[in-house]
Here is the input.
Amino acid sequence: MLNRRQFLAGSTAATLIPATGMAAPAPVRLEPAPARVQLAPPSYPITDVWAYNGSVPGQTLRFKQGARLHAELVNGLEQPTTIHWHGLRLPNNMDGVPDFSQPVVQPGGTFDYEFDLPDAGTYWYHPHAGALEQVARGLSGPLIIEEATPPDVDAEHVLVIDDWRLTEEAKIHESFESGRDLSHAGRLGNYVTANGSGDLQLPARAGARMRLRLINTANARIFSIELQGLEGWIVALDGMPLEKPEKAETVSLATAQRADLIVDVTAAPGEEAFLISRERDEGFALTTFKVSDQAAQARRGAPAPLPPNILPEIQLDGAKTARMLMEGGAMRWLDSAAYKGRQMGGRELAQEGQFWALNGMVGMPDDPLVSASLGETVRVALGNDTRFPHAIHLHGHHFRDVQPDGALGPLRDTILLQPGRAREIAFVADNPGKWMFHCHMLSHQISGMMTWIEVS
Ligand code: C2O
Ligand code: CU
Here is the structure.
């Protein structure tokens, strides 16, 4: 780990509030391009990154629920890109999957993204072309969609948590397609940032109530986050409100997942409060809150649930069923699997940089995992027969996990499956098109773990 104890002045991402209610607001221009930022502590050199409009993370896009997002992608990279709006229920041709839902955007090229925002919540955007490298170099940003009536809080912070693999000179380590990462836990870094800072410090007032919007944009790292000097509730996961706020003890945040917290500052004036990242016995501050004077004297009760987003009801009776069996990776190497229309042995696949299979197939198959008719409920039995955790993401829909007794869990767009575990999810296929369904550990995605569903 690089030295984390030193100060780093936060480069706060600019907030952009598009005008709503006007005829045609100018599109937000998003230009991914090379940039230089002080990522590591000040005793280290500046880091060459790829960034949207020069900032890491990319600027916070903020809209009101029901508004229309209009963004123009201008590709300032020397390689093709796209933008995927992670977690949004949007029209298929706006989903950003290259040569699948849209043509890839060549260097110097542009693409207009324009769609309505039906759901409030915490989302994010990132490239879906060359994603392993492009995200690792710094391309991602928050997308916040505000409720018509936001909850009553004294402050709100968007916290983009990222994990970087840097060299001792604070350069982005260019080991993107290392066979070890592809076949193990993915590209884990050695430097963790919140909003681009290894030592993010924010002001807070004792007794104040804050909304924290946590977004994990790391390539592969799973965070386990604890509160210190703060007490609160999880009020939404992956953008979608929980029916009942849940006490936040430890917040598990797999890659691509989000959690909205409402927390009260319990630390006294002059003290510090923290969000702590725990890994085994170690912990470090993801964010430090410098607590000043008293905002409120009395503790408030649990917050009311956020207003729900309106999604169709899951009907388990008569649902269409499918399964997704995950196999491969280190210590459980594939014997053989189908790749590019041919059955291949594990060794041959490894030479192609392919290590994982879903239902015996490596990479995007010709046929969808499931074809659903519009409005149909789909149940997918997920099984993780590997030695690694996987964060499985479905595009264009939110699903719930189905407990053995039939009870339904919270709405999510990314679910973490621990090694050896099986879980079942269900969703209403109400969004027509072809949607990717893949592991969001980006190293796993490109080395086998992707498939798709079709809704028509
Ligand atoms: Cu956030 Cu297919 O990705
Ligand atoms: Cu995976």
About this structure: Residues 1-19 have pLDDT under 50 and may be disordered. The first strand starts at residue 15 and ends at 16. The longest helix spans residues 131-136.
